Amino acid sequence: MKNKKTALLIATYNWPEALNLVLKSLCVQTQMPDEILIADDGSTSETRQLIEKYQTIIQIPIRHFWHEDLGFRKTIILNQAISNTNCDYIIQIDGDIVMHPKFVENHTMNAKIGFYTKGSRSLLSDELTKKAISFELINFSALQRGLKNRINATYAPALATIFRGDKYRSDNLKGCNFAFWRNDFIAVNGYNNDFIGWGHEDIELAARLTNYGIKQRQLKMTAICYHLYHKFNSRVFENPNYQYYLDSVEKHIVTCKNGINQSF
Predict the structure, then answer these.
(1) Residue 12's pLDDT is what?
(2) What is the count of structural domains for the chain?
(3) H or E stretch including 242?
C-alpha cells in the first residue's frame, strides 16, 4: 500500500444514531484512511447535521454524497461517491458497522493487487444494540452477552491466514465489510444501477470482479467489526435481483451497462 491512498466508504440511510457510533469508532482507528466518503441514500437533515459535526472533529476530509429518497437506490449513491474520489483503495462498510480500532489498518495490510477482500462481522443483539446507542458504546468483547458470531469478533491476526483461502468466489460477499481497488471497480463498471430494492448487489459485483480475473481474499479474526441489530429490509425484489447475479455468473458477464459510467 506504499504511496497508495485509501478511502473509507460508508453507506447510510436514516439512522444517525448508528452512524454516530460508526464515526466514533473511526476516531479511535490506529490508522486513518486518507478520505471518508459517506454515500447517503436520501436521509433527512439529522444525518447531515451529524456529519457536519464530525467534519469539525476528524482532521481528514469527510465527503457527504446525498440524493433524494426515492426508495432503495444504494447502488447509485455508492457509484457516485466512488466516482468522486481519487483514492486507490476503497474499504466499504454500512452505516451500522462499528469498527474494531485496527479495522482500517488490517484492511490496508491485507490489500493485494489482483484481489478484493471479504471481511466478516459479528452481530449484536437488539438489547445490546439499544445499550450501545444509549451509552455510545464502541468497544465490544467476543465473550460478552448479546454478541453473536463470536469467532468473527475474536481478534487474532496470527491465526487469520488459516481462514484466508484466497480463491475465485462471489456468493458469500457482504458489502458491509468489503474492500477493493478502485481501478478494478471501474473496470467492471461498478455497482449495477438496474437493481431495484434490497438485495444481492454486492455478490453480483463480486461475480463480475471474479469474471474479470480478481480473486477473493477472506479476512477472519482480523478487520473485526460489529453489526448493530435492525429489522430486515423488504425482500420484495430479492428474487429479481438474485437473477442478475445468476446471469453474471452463468453468462460470465464482466461489465454492466448501467453502472458507475452514469456518475462521471
Answers:
(1) 98
(2) 1
(3) helix 238-250
Residue type, 177: N
pLDDT tens readout for residues 99-153: 999 999 999 999 999 999 999 999 999 999 999 999 999 999 999 999 999 999 9
Write the pLDDT tens digit of every residue in 127-140: 999 999 999 999 99
The CA distance from 74 to 205, in Å, is 13
Residue 20 lies in a domain: yes
Instruction: Supply φ then ψ for residue 164, to 5 degrees.
Output: -60, -55
Global pTM reads 0.96
The answer to whether the CB of 199 falls within 8 A of the CB of 175 is no
Sequence-distant (6+) residues with CB within 8 A of 51 are 19, 23, 38, 62, 64
The residue count of the chain comes to: 264
CATH for 35: 3.90.550.10
CA distance 176 to 97: 7
What is the DSSP pairing of strand 89-94 with strand 122-124? unpaired
213 falls within a domain = yes
CA-wise closest residue to 2 among 112, 137, 117, 165:
112
Between CA 185 and CA 260 the distance in angstroms is 9
pLDDT tens, residue by residue, 27-48? 999 999 999 999 999 999 999 9
Residue 1: inside a domain = no
Q: Which domain holds residue 253?
A: 6-262
